[in-house]
Design a protein that fits this description.
2 strands
């Protein structure tokens, strides 16, 4: 059985795929920019926004999850969050449109079930951190200065900022660790697929045998190479894979190295 269909509540019609919506958005954005007549420009702009609104509605639950995470962090740090709901949605929309504009569909053409979920989650998680610091700074400037001074007389504002960073990291690990693992896996397989186009048949065989758990001496014997060539080939593959991983991560608006990826997988 396939995945259950997701129905858009506002229309009662099944949601379009993320790939189709991104394609519609970007195509109409380009057409609007190139249009000479105002009526034509408005038509394409309207179609562009229609695609964006459908995707915005499609990821309503993710947005509410990220907003709930923000609200919990604010409560823990004595920030009055409820009054800032409107600002949160405005910031979330801005990040949402930015990630739409930055997607390169040709880079994900080989991923049949691609979606913007992980990419959008990354944008909004980064936004949460920036907003929390912004509101914290605002809070500092609107409350008596003595309330930010500890019993020993030291300024606690910098310490509080540090504590917020730590709390965001901890809560992010608890809520989104599985998403990070899934994103890292997606990055790894994309990087590996790109790497294989540069490898010789023996190097590809080496990778497959390592992945299958063969011992080094068994690989050397099967490939009929000496230990030096084996080590050089392995080092070359690791270096190129590192480069491919970094490039694939950047396309998803994140930073990731080979060693960080191994660590996230428990390797």
């Amino acid at each position: 059985m396939g995945r259950p269909k997701r129905i858009r509540e506002s229309t009662g019609i099944e949601y379009q795929s993320d790939r189709d919506l991104v394609e519609q958005f970007q195509l109409n954005m380009d057409k609007a920019a190139a249009a000479r007549k105002e009526t034509t420009r408005k038509l394409y702009s309207s179609r562009m926004l229609d695609a964006a609104y459908e995707m915005w509605e499609k990821y309503f639950k993710l947005r509410m999850k990220m907003r709930a995470e923000m609200a919990a962090l604010c409560r823990r740090n004595s920030l009055h969050y409820p009054e800032l709901y409107e600002e949160y949605d405005a910031e979330a929309w801005e990040k949402f449109i930015l990630q739409f504009q930055g997607i390169r569909l040709e880079d994900v053409a080989h991923l049949p079930n691609w979606s913007i979920y992980i990419r959008l989650w990354g944008y909004w998680r980064s936004m949460n951190r920036d907003l929390l610091k912004k509101w914290f700074d605002w809070n500092i400037n609107t409350i008596p200065i003595y309330s930010l001074t500890r019993n020993d007389g030291k300024d606690s504002s910098n310490e509080s900022l540090t504590n917020i960073d730590v709390e965001i990291a901890k809560r992010g690990d608890q809520i989104n660790s599985q998403l990070e693992i899934e994103m890292n896996r997606e990055i790894f397989w994309e990087a590996l697929d790109n790497l294989k186009t540069e490898l010789t048949p023996k190097q590809k065989k080496l990778i497959n045998m390592k992945a299958s758990g063969y011992k080094n001496r068994e690989i050397i014997s099967t490939l009929k190479i000496n230990g030096k060539i084996f080590r050089e080939s392995l080092n070359f593959i690791k270096q190129r894979l590192e480069t491919k991983i970094i490039a694939a991560a950047k396309r998803r608006n994140t930073n990731l190295t080979y060693s960080e990826m191994l660590s996230s997988f428990g390797g």
